[in-house]
Amino acid sequence: MRVLINCLAGLFLGGLAHVLLYPYAPGLDIFALKYLLVQTGGLLGIVAFAPVCVFIAKKRKRDMLDAAFTSGIALGLGGLAGAYWFASSGRPHAIIEAGVPISFLLAMFLPLRAPRTSVLRFLAVANIVLLVLFLSPFCRTHIESNSQYDIALAPLLPEVPSEFSGASSKPDVLLISVDTLRADVLDRVELPALAKLREQSLSAPYALAPSSATLPSHISMVTGESPLQHAAYTNFGKLDEGIPTLAEAFSSGGFRTIATAANGLLSTATGFERGFELLVNVEGDAAHKEKGSALNVALTGRRMVWYAAPLSDLWSQRLSVFLFMRRYSGLDNSQEGAVATAPIVRDLALNYLEQLYADETPFFYFLHFMDPHLPYHATDNYLGRLDGNRPLPDSYSDHTSGSLLLCRSAIANIKEGGSAAAIADAKDVIDIQHDRYHEEMLMVDDALAQVFARIEQSGRPTVILFTSDHGEHFGENDLMLHGDLLHAANVRVPFILSTPDSVSGDFFEFVPTLEDIPITLLRAAGFTIKDFGNGRDLMAGNVDEEPFASLADKYIAVQHGDYKLICEWKSGDGPTSAIKPIQLYSQVNDGLEEAINLLGQEATMNEQLALFERARRFVEECSKKGMREFDEQDVADLNALGYALDDDAETAESH
């Protein structure tokens, strides 16, 4: 018992130093939350660390009580060292890399003697009392979420420069990207506005995205280049200044150019604003954006305290969020940025359309919706319409429906196996999340209905292209969400093209790609340009089917005809990367499920070899991976959106 008291006393002092010098929000700010994170990890650390230190001290004939007291202090100071190493490097295992050796060195060689027994007892009791006090529900602090974008503060369109020569007799162009939208959405849920658009447009059962991540696909969407050329293989890439953009082409052709977006990746930081007169980015709840905020301290805490060492990232995040929720109320429904932005994006779009229609100059408008991206949380008037707000199974009752942690937990339970009841509960959770996802699309569809109505009211000819950057898994291939995965559920997206003279209800006889968008829109708007990037003019009568590559950090998928081959590769190695085939799928028979891996089968060996050779040539011709400058906060922000990233901003685990 005395050994334990000495450990707790030492941990109180060492942990207190960790709390006060915590890299994010140092000092007394949010003291209680930091104390919970640090000392909870410290208590777990004592279980494994202190007995070893005491055993070694006994072998070295050192007083065990002194060793126990010193080991507690060493745990606190070692944890602090690991926290600072993580804050400066972003390395996911920093608490082990720096904390473990420093703690052992301090425990073995710090010449400390334990104070008298009464002092030790006071410190140990103070440690436990504070933990119990801060865990008590009556000590919770209420936090209001008030960071939604204020439409009233939206900037006005810039005045047209005097030397600007507007185009004449050309249609307006609207490119709509709905983040994380699967190709099958119109077949699974009734969306009147999009259904009406499809009935009077050219469309396809699906188009192919060049990536399963936001930024790479959107850069391809506005440059016509594959990630193989623009080299932004991840969300930490950047639009290269030497690559022409669609907005620049429209601007030089006399069009006004404007973009409104709801994902922080589509911003000046990534170069996405190039060519636009104005880019306005709307983000939902930004509470986790500030390094010193309580939520961000909790999210990063899973890597800055001792429970990050023995627990998986999922379980350490669960523990961090649990401790956060013991301290704070008011963010229960928006703890992970769960703010529906579609109504804000709609109002912003209508605002700018009014300004654009005040002038006869045609415009190119890039309109981006973040919904239905995780977390799945439509506004109250849509929540529950498709039964997406039904209660979670009892085994998941402590989770927030629509949250990242819930999705990760459900799919982890399926992968780990377990009882039939446990797997049934996990599948039920996934079905509920899929319904919530579709409820978000009901909200987006209604927002689009108002935008389309305003366009129709204008009486101006308009080209509209509707698509998405990537899809989302809902149990296919035993996966959830998206990220570094290139299965059909992730790279098949909707594609609808409406032009003033398009034939209603016709389907493309080939598979479009996001790289086809720039040249297609330019030609539909009356430009005589012959090519733009690698894209094909989808309005031309002789569109060739060509092998298409989708890229991620660790995988490359090549699709041609009826088959798709997925290979392992490493984007950081660029043209020198080795590739290894791991999966072959029939695109005709498998659909979004891709349940049957045909790799190595005799009947498909010719297709496998041909696609592997094409993948090898793609890699040999690719550009070296491009990265923008980023810090740990950027990693934390993307982790909050469901991307699990390592210290090189590469996907560390699949979802």
Walk me through this protein's architecture.
This protein has helices spanning 2-20, 31-59, 64-89, 94-109, 117-135, 185-188, 192-199, 214-223, 227-230, 246-252, 294-304, 313-327, 342-357, 404-415, 420-458, 488-491, 517-524, 605-620, 632-640, and strands at residues 141-142, 172-178, 202-208, 256-261, 278-281, 328-329, 363-369, 462-467, 473-474, 480-481, 492-498, 548-551, 555-560, 563-568, 580-586. It has 19 helices and 15 strands. It has 3 domains: 2-139 and 300-311, no CATH class; 170-285 and 334-553 and 625-640, Alkaline Phosphatase, subunit A (3-Layer(aba) Sandwich); 554-624, Arylsulfatase, C-terminal domain (2-Layer Sandwich). It is an alpha/beta fold and 655 residues long. It has a 7-stranded mixed β-sheet with strand order 3-11-8-2-7-4-5, sandwiched between helices. Strands 12-13-14-15 form a 4-stranded antiparallel β-sheet, with helices on one face. A two-stranded parallel ribbon has the order 1-6. Mean pLDDT is 86; it is low at 284-289, 332-337 and 646-650.
Report the strand count.
15
Radius of gyration using CA atoms only: 27 Å
- Given helix and strand content, the structural type is alpha/beta
State the share of residues found in helices, binned by percent: 40-55%
Q: Sum up the overall morphology in one term.
A: elongated
In CATH, the topology of the largest domain is named: Alkaline Phosphatase, subunit A
CATH level 1 class label of the largest domain: Alpha Beta
Relevant CATH superfamily of the largest domain: Alkaline Phosphatase, subunit A
Strand portion: 5-15%
Count every helix, treating DSSP H or I runs of 4 or more residues as helices.
Answer: 19
Count of distinct structural domains? 3
- CATH architecture label name of the largest domain: 3-Layer(aba) Sandwich
Q: Strand order of the main beta sheet, please?
A: 3-11-8-2-7-4-5
Mean pLDDT: 86
Taking the alpha carbons of the first and last residues, their distance comes to 44 Å
Low-confidence stretches: 284-289, 332-337, 646-650
Report on the biggest sheet: 7 strands, mixed
